[in-house]
Amino acid sequence: MDMNTKELKKNAFRVTKVRGVTSSRVRVPGGLLKAEYLGKIQKIAETYGNGTVNLTARQGFEIPGIPFEKIPEVNQALQEIIDGTGVNQTGKERGEGYPASGTRNVSACVGNRVCPYACYDTTALAQKIEKVIFPNDLHVKVVLTGCPNDCQKVRMGDIGIMGMTEPQFDPDRCVSCGACIKACRSKSVDALTSVRFRPERDSYKCIGCGECINACPDLAWTRSQKKYFRVTLLGRTGKKNPRMGVDFIKWADEDSIIQIIKNTYEYTRHYINPDSPGGKEHIGYIVDRTGTEEFLRWALKDVHLPDIAEVYTPLNWNGVEYAHNKYFGNQRYHENGTIVTDFSK
Amino acid sequence: MGYIADTSQFEKLFSYWKEEYEIWAPRRFQGGGRFSDTDAVRYARVDSPSEIEFEEKSAYSWKETVFPPSETLFYFSQNHVEEAEAPAKKRLVFLRSCDLAAVRRMDQIYLKNGDPDYYYARKRDGLAFVLIGCPHTCENGFCVSMGTNASDNYDMSVDVTDGAYYIDCPQEDWSRKLEELGAAPAEHKPSRVTENKVSVRIPDNLTYEVGKSTMWNQYDKRCINCGRCNFVCPTCTCFTMQDMYYDADGKVGERRRVQASCMVDGYTDVAGGASYRKKNGQRMRFKTLHKVLDFRERFGYQMCVGCGRCDDICPEYISFSHIINHLEEGMKEAQADDNSK
Question: Are B32 and A196 a contacting pair at CB < 8 A?
Answer without folding.
Answer: no
